[in-house]
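ok so i was messing around last nite and threw this chain in just to see what happens. nothing serious, just curious
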Amino acid sequence: MSFAHWCGKHPIPPWIRLVLVCLLAMTTPALAQGVVDLCGCARDTLNAFDASDPQTYPAGSTGCASTCKFGAIVLALPPDGVLRFSQIVVDGAFAISFRPNAANTPVTLLVAGDVLLRGVTCCGTLTVAGSSGAAATVARGVGVGGNGGPGAFRGGRGHGQPLGIGALTPGGMSIIIKRDGIDV
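result:
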């Protein structure tokens, strides 16, 4: 006879059900709810990053020489590409970019607390862009691809109009010859 069938013939009184639930709850070990360290920040002493205070910049970074309200800041990436902060404050017109590390890892920002990104009027940026490439010239030939940002690769080699051949290639130019105002 199955337990469900037996319970149907002999219902368990509610007070016994309550006692059983209480006994089960008392014998189950209580698991403390721990704080999960998603960013791996617990192993490090975290510091705040304040764009206006160069004392808070990571080692190897460049930017303001003293306290400032605007400027260009280049943050140096550590070998793993992960910048860990207790908080980030960018309050002003700052252009923040990142210097790639030797392994060219992507930028990862891990922040345990608040992040404030506020430009007073305009012009604040946080960018991982690379640089523009160079156009083709007759002397150099094809253009040189621009450097990629952190974690990215150099752009492709392109060409411009000097290398186009009679509209047969992108950037090529058509040649129209006219004699006495009539296309030849």
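not much to say yet. Residues 130-177 form one domain.
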